Amino acid sequence: MRILPLCAASALSLSATAQGLRDRPSAAASSIVIVLNGSVEAFDGHVGAPLVADAVDSVTIAIAICDAAGRPMANLPVRIEVTGSRNIVTPAATSLTDVNGLLIANLTTTAAETKTISVVADPGPAEVLLHDRPSVTFRAGPATRFEVALGVTMDGGRREVNVAGWDFFGNLAAGYRGTEQ
Length: 181
Fold this sequence. Notes:
The chain is mainly beta. Helix content is 0%, strand content 52%.
């Protein structure tokens, strides 16, 4: 796994809200921070473009869980759910907060798509679901395999041409559709 220095990371802080009982985790006092582990130059103010779906580029998810009074909640189970496929959340999708009420996890993937991240504090009958769901987009890596398809001859002797480039993990990296004479 490629580790980039934190000084080369960009962060987006999202406020959170939740449903739950009093004396349970409070999203009003809790927060989610998404850190892109990439260059600051590539960060354009929203979580997206610079991530490659190569099982190397990652997003760090920092979750702070507090009670209604704003006190950190230690040893609270927190589950991170990510839409899409071929996702890897480390250390685990369900982990415990530390003594400061924090849980830090990393998300990598090999599927080029937009991922939506959901957080559930204290999973089970009294769980607290954070309503905000930040999204991150992973794009395909460089093309390693190409396919060319020629269509039927059209009027005037022209044919449709389709070219597709696929990355190592089977994600569409580039495509072209046109006609040839």
